Amino acid sequence: MTVEQNVLQQHSQKHQQTLLNQLREVTGTTDVQLLQQALQVSHGDLAEAVAFLTEKKAKVPQQDEATYYQTTQVGNDRYISVGSQADTNVIDLTGDDKDDLQRAIALSLEESSRAFRETGITDEEQAISRVLEASIAENKASLKRTHTEVWSDSPNPHDRKRMENCPVGLKNVGNTCWFSAVIQSLFNLLEFQRLVLHYSPPARVQDLPRNQKEHRNLPFMQELRNLFSLMVGSKRKYVDPSCAVEILKDAFKSSESQQQDVSEFTHKLLDWLEDAFQMKAEEDREGEKPKNPMVELFYGRFLAVGVLEGKKFENTEMFGQYPLQVNGFKDLHECLEAAMIEGEIESLHSSAENSARSGQEHWFTELPPVLTFELSRFEFNQALGRPEKIHSKLEFPSMLYMDRYMDRNREITRIKREEIRRLKEHLTLLQQRLERYLSYGSGPKRFPLADVLQYAMEFTSSKPVCTSPVGDIDTSAPPGGTTGQLLTAEQGPSIPPEGLALQRVPIHKPFTQSRLPPDLPMHPAPRHITEEELRVLEGCLHRWRSEVENDTRDLQGSISRIHRTIELMYSDKSMMQVPYRLHAVLVHEGQANAGHYWAYIYDPHQRCWMKYNDISVTKSSWEELVRDSFGGYRNASAYCLMYINDKKPFLIEEEFNKETGQMLSGLDKLPPDLKAYVKEDNGLFDKEMEEWNTLQTRKAQQEKLALAVATAATAQDPEYMEQPSPTDYSRHLQEDTERAISKAAAEQQQEERSPEGLLTAAIKVEYTRLLRFSQEDTAPGSDYRLQHVIVYFIQNQAPKKILERTLLMQFADRNLGFNERCKSIMKVARAKLDLIKPEEINMEEYEMWHQDYRNFRETTIFLMIGLELFQKKSFVEALMYLIYSYQYNRELLVKGLYRGHDDELIGLYRRECLLKLNENAAGMFESGEEPEVSNGLSIMNELVVPCIPLLLVHDIEKDLLSVEDMRNRWCSYLGQEMEPNLQEKLTDFLPKLLDCSTEIKSFHDPPKLPTYSTLELVERYSRVMASLSRVPADGR
Q: Which residues contact residue 683 at a Cβ distance below 8 angstroms, ignoring those fewer than 6 apart?
């Protein structure tokens, strides 16, 4: 075939694929065979093809077997639908006004065809463009949002500094978690990483035709190289992928936006990479058939062996990502078995040429080093007119042996499959027999037969115990016959027996008629049974029960052995020669039209799983991966599995210096141009940290100078030691001090009552009192730390010098009483303060301890006000107080257990406040009324959603469950009928709610706190804590 013929064939294939995509988009029909049939009937006329499909009016068409079993599809030799079931439901789009619809369709097709002719861009590419533009628009729009909605970097660059040898995260620049998950999975394939980093564009780029592919692929490859180089050597904790996303967006021309299909993105990404490497390969190996490293890494081949109307056929196909159906299967091997066999395959193994049966098998002839499975977890609900996610559980192994699917093992596998089929048939029969033993009976309620016999034995051996002593029982009388006699006696004069039935009129006597008959047993028991009957019956029941238990055990044992035999069917060494180890799992949480993506990637050097969730990269475990990836537990499940050939270690091996033999790491792994690029970026980051450090040093110096000036000018105590209030000058602290002085004076001898001796004794008395408080076990409402700073210092083991100076400051207070004794002690205390040398006490440490105590009091006030508002059901106002109290409290607890309050208590009410707000907002949304709906979504967007990362960041189980509850409440609306405007608002809102990133959003400034005296604070805090013990929150 000449070059010209090859080019023409490729253009024809691409044009036919474009027609199929356009026809699929217009009609909604997903059956590829039916679409091809329509194009054949219409001879390529799209308008006639649409008419052909719409005239069906939802009838199920007769499928052309020759088309169905033709696995080769023109123009689509890379990505084929393997083992999927065709959707034969044709959507009727004609409605009542068919002419208008036909004209609209014709116009749409004409515009689509013209756009393709002018730009060469397919509908598939336009779909990717739409989501990329949406991502960029989201990123730009974030700059215009309100303060509470902005995903912002921490202003402190040290918070964004990369820890040594930690993987680098990717910033979510606007609904790009799908991009991060895919890129991280590929980046951690070290062979792929090396190929990208060392890629160089063709030397004769200027000689190449300036086509759309070159304009798109080469700039994208350069940005991908830049991104990878930053992920290798950046000093930043996470990097921004906006430039690569911008290139993707600019490659297409579309103004619409829609949810990105991640599998489609991965297809297209590998397609672009293949094209880029193909240009380079053709230049490097002129005259020879070039080898494309992307094809060698990600693409394999399989053989389709089939029978069509009695005639056998074989076709070889190339595949990239291998699609697998999830619905109806419990594990990955079941999915693969179903994907490898289509139709009735009995005739494949027979020599009957005239057999009418048709079917086909797929056998891998060549597996790629990187084997990727697409798990089809989305299906279109024709009744509801929207896609739905399949949440069923699907297990997959960490080590997958592919021998049973290889063409070289075809005959062995067929034998084993036939053996498994026979075992499963026998297993079904055994399970049915076992079910008859375990669910015995003919009614709606059934019980294990062994239990039924046991109950019968217990009934047989029971002895009747009557409600009252009764003598001989007339066995001929009906049960309860004595009741009639009692009623007759109570009703009056005796009536002749022969007239009883005709003359007695029943009289309703509730008490008499509801009384238990005296001979009714207290528990069920045989009324009449002889010893001989009892002995025979007990013997039979014992024997029958033993027989039933033996039969049940035998059946269960046989079933277990068959299960074990099936499990071990492929466990011999000959069928364990093609091992593939799980490299990455890409996870989706949410519903079909909204959700969040992240990836679990195995680190072979640390021998652990890592979780890549946008900017957050954390160590994980196989147990966490199973919980999030298998499905069936939450709305999260795997949608893509990436396995690597375990016999090809080069895929994940580090690179070594050929001269020194040392492993390359960091910047040493980069080529010169990328090394310079990363050094420049690191230099900018270093400069940012230096500027931050300079700014913080300047602020600290200013604060220290201001503190020194204030101390020298006023020499006043810390504000909490003489806390003013609108009505009280905080007499309690002065009274405590004066009381300590009086007590010390009473204990001193007359000759020892010098001011200096009294000061020492008074300080000892006060310290002893406060030490006793610090050692007492008190209820949460009686927190002595609030009453005095020394209690706080003692409990947190402050240095002795800090305690001494603080007590001296207390006794040096000018607000003490004006009697001579107090004045003299105050003067002595002030003199001692002046005598303390700078080297004797670290004033920075002293100020730090007092600042911690001020923070503790502020945290207490935040908590107190938040709890008061929560109890008043003012959840909107309470939230910020509870949020800041929790955050400040955690900062305190980092320094020590007694630095703050009970974090579980604050966490409980923070969590409950968010749940209440979520409940209220959901109720407003359910009302359907426009003002209510807007208010509800406003509460979620401005209050609840920004707080969700705070609940996720510390991995506290109760917080995670609360987030799951909130998300489930809103996700439950996806399956309900609602107005289109509500559906649109829900679709816009859900991605924000389902975003699993732990990147903290910025909030408004904390609420301004009122001023409280120590006495007011203690009393008010005590009241609110006491009320909590009486009225517990709706905790879990």
A: none
What is the tens place of the pLDDT at every residue in 818-873? Answer: 577 777 888 888 888 888 877 788 888 888 999 999 999 999 999 999 999 999 99
The pair of structure tokens assigned to 560 is 């277990």
Residue 920 predicted with pLDDT over 90 = yes
Confidence of residue 710 (pLDDT cuts 50, 70, 90): low
Residues 335-384: tens digit of each pLDDT:
999 888 876 555 455 554 445 567 888 999 999 999 999 988 877 767 76
Report whether 990 contacts 922 (CB < 8 A).
Answer: no
Q: For 92, left (φ over 0), alpha (ψ -120 to 50), or beta?
A: beta
CA–CA gap between residue 299 and residue 364 (Å, rounded): 12
* Residue 198 bears catalytic tag: no
CB-count burial class (<10 Å; 0-12, 13-18, 19+) for 750: exposed
3-state secondary structure (DSSP) of residue 981: helix
Question: From the candidates 267, 362, 583, 588, which is the catalytic residue?
Answer: 588
- CA count, 13 A, side-chain hemisphere, 690: 6
- Cα 18 to Cα 74: distance, rounded to the nearest angstrom: 12
Contact call for residues 901 and 859 (beta carbons, < 8 A) = yes
| Environment class of 354 (CB within 10 Å of its CB; exposed 0-12, middle 13-18, buried 19+) | exposed
More confident residue, 99 or 255: 99
CA separation for the pair 516, 518 (Å, rounded)? 6
Distance CA 655, CA 661 (A): 9
Determine which one of 177, 640, 947, 971 is catalytic.
Answer: 177
User: Does the annotation mark 596 as catalytic?
Assistant: yes
Q: Are 490 and 545 in contact (CB under 8 A)?
A: no
C-alpha distance from residue 886 to each of 65, 230, 875, 879 (Å): 66, 35, 16, 11
Number of Cβ within a 10 Å radius of residue 375: 26
Q: What are the helix (H) ranges across 748-798? A: 755-775, 789-795
What would the DSSP string read from start to end of 96-130? S-HHHHHHHHHHHHHHHHHHHHHH---HHHHHHHH
Structure-token pair, residue 691: 């500027």
Query: Does the pLDDT at position 661 exceed 80?
Result: no
389 three-state secondary structure: strand
Query: Which one is catalytic: 596, 788, 850, 901?
Result: 596
Side chain identity at residue 585, one-letter code: V
CB environment 86-100: b (16+ within 10 A), e (fewer): eeebbbebeeeeeee
Q: Give, rounded to a whole angstrom, the gap between the first and last alpha carbons of the chain.
A: 72
Using pLDDT thresholds of 50, 70 and 90, give the confidence band for residue 810: confident
Q: Which residue has the tokens 């005590």?
A: 1022
Distance CA 164, CA 92 (A): 60
Closest among 353, 350, 357, 343 to 304, alpha carbons compared: 343
Active site (annotated) includes residue 177: yes
Phi, psi of 747 (to 5 degrees): -85, -20
Q: Mean per-residue pLDDT for 176-187?
A: 87
Handedness of CA 332, 335, 340, 341 (dihedral sign): positive
980-994 vs 930-939: helix crossing angle, rounded to 10: 10
Helices (H), 796-929: 800-811, 820-835, 843-871, 875-893, 903-927
Long-range pairs, 345-354, Cβ under 8 A, ≥24:
347/307, 347/310, 348/305, 348/306, 348/307, 348/312, 349/414, 352/310, 353/310, 353/311, 354/310
Minimal CA–CA distance to 906: which of 892, 885, 891? 885
Q: How confident is the model at residue 392 (pLDDT cuts 50, 70, 90)?
A: confident
The pLDDT score that the predictor gives to residue 277 is 84
- List Cβ neighbours of 131 (8 Å cut-off, separation of 6 or more): 175, 257, 258, 259, 260, 265
